[in-house]
Write a structure and sequence with these properties.
This protein is an alpha/beta fold. It has 11 helices and 13 strands. Strand 9, helix 8 and strand 10 form a beta-alpha-beta unit. Helix 1 packs across helix 11, helix 3 crosses helix 5 and helix 7 crosses helix 8. Pfam families: PdxA (PF04166). Keywords: Metal-binding, NAD, Oxidoreductase.
């Protein structure tokens, strides 16, 4: 990017750990990106006089003007140091509250409610519209409580589905990115029985092709290695443990055909990986990178993709009991899992604090920590902000590729 990145963060449920994660993490985020927070100011005010806070904070005048069309209240948030240099400004952000009528009297720390659900969803809406319109380079969402959203009258299954409807994206998939393992889920919140009963070669092929295309757009890596999990033990062992692998083999063939290179008058195109690594302008401070020996989501190019045809390679169906270990050692760039727990158990075992939820298919970058609101921890200042910082760092790394995704002109109202 030719300018400093700008991310927008939706606060999540104001009665959960989102406000604490934001306050604790803002000083680490601000050196490498500008920040706008969208959420209920009352969620931060609930934390006043709670013991154990690692930082202090104060509300000031907004540092910049809010985006055009925003109808709530705007503030400036400054996070201040404690200890040897009390009062030193560690981080600051523009704060937009789309529900200023909801205050501390309407909220109870550690408990979701209709009020907290309304504040959560309205914050997501405004933050998403900022990203959708190009007013922000990426969206980071802190955890929401679906039950509270339902109490507020929002009939939404979760962030992914709501953002898909809001943006009009025709297809999305839930991905999880971590230093050692990148996973896309073919199905998400449905019963295992229904996964087996409805498995379809065309649909699995769609997930394979879509996931490969999205990761190529976001990373610039044209020769992506994509592995598909088998459904049955030992990949069915030639039909001994089930015949679904025949359908999965058909899906692999279809996925390969989607990227097949056909000769043209100029001759066949050849794929090549861009030699460029992610760099920020000298005036900017790069976000933290993964430690030595850990790959993470490698971003190879920051501008347009090279004018060459991508040539991802597909492998599988492979037994999932060994596939994730192979992928964690670098044999594959991406694993497509057929159902929720097949993909998330290894992710949460291998990378419990570093796995980041990345939504594929939206016309903007969206990341999220891979955990919930943790109402039982709210106000105790014991929640670990590392996963939130990983989500913010990934959003900044990918913001250099936001130009690969469409940004329609959308008002915030």
């Amino acid at each position: 990017m030719s300018r400093r990145p700008h991310i927008v963060i939706s606060l999540g449920d104001p009665c959960g750990i989102g406000p604490e994660l934001l306050l604790a993490g803002l000083s680490s985020i601000r050196p490498w990106t500008d920040v706008t927070v969208v959420g209920c100011k009352g969620g931060v005010d609930l934390l006043l006089d709670r013991p154990g806070a690692p930082v202090a904070w104060r509300w000031v005048e907004p540092p910049i003007q809010p985006p055009g069309g925003f109808s709530g209240k705007a503030y400036g948030l400054q996070v201040l140091s404690l200890g040897e240099t009390p009062g030193q400004i560690l981080g600051e952000a523009l704060w937009l509250d789309p529900t200023p009528e909801i205050g501390t009297a309407d909220l109870t720390l550690g408990e979701g409610s209709a009020a907290s659900g309304q504040a959560t969803v309205e914050a997501i809406r405004v933050a998403a519209l900022m990203a959708l319109s190009g007013a922000a380079d990426a969206l980071v969402t802190l955890p929401m409580a679906k039950s509270a959203a339902h109490l507020a009258g929002y009939d939404i299954p979760g962030h992914t589905e709501y953002l898909q409807d809001l943006s009009g994206a025709p297809i999305t998939r839930m991905a999880f990115v971590s230093p050692r393992l990148n996973v896309v889920l073919h199905t998400v919140h449905q019963s295992l029985r229904s996964v087996v009963e409805t498995i379809d070669a065309d649909e699995v092929a769609e997930t394979l092709v879509f996931s490969a295309d999205q990761f190529i757009r976001l990373t610039g890596k044209l020769d992506l290695r994509v592995a598909l999990c088998a459904l049955n033990p030992h990949a069915g062992e030639q039909g001994a443990f089930g015949g679904e692998e025949v359908l999965l083999e058909e899906a692999i063939v279809q996925a390969e055909a989607a990227f097949m290179d056909f000769p043209t008058a100029k001759g066949p195109a050849s794929a090549s990986v861009s030699p460029f690594r992610l760099t920020l302008p000298p005036s900017e401070v790069a976000p933290p990178q993964h430690s030595a020996g850990q790959r993470g989501l490698e971003v190879l190019a920051t501008g347009d993709l090279p004018d060459t045809r991508p040539a991802p390679r597909f492998f599988g169906p492979l037994p999932s009991d060994s596939l994730f270990g192979r992928a964690s050692r670098g044999e594959f760039d991406l694993v497509v899992a057929l159902y929720h727990d097949q993909g998330l158990i290894p992710v949460k075992v291998l990378e419990p604090a570093r796995a980041v939820n990345l939504t594929l298919g939206l016309p903007f970058i969206r990341t999220s920590p891979d955990h919930g609101t943790a109402f039982d921890k709210a106000g105790k200042w014991i929640a670990d902000a590392q996963n939130f910082l990983e989500a913010a760092a990934l959003a900044v790394r990918l913001s250099g590729r936001a130009g690969q995704l469409a940004h329609p002109n959308v008002p915030l109202a």
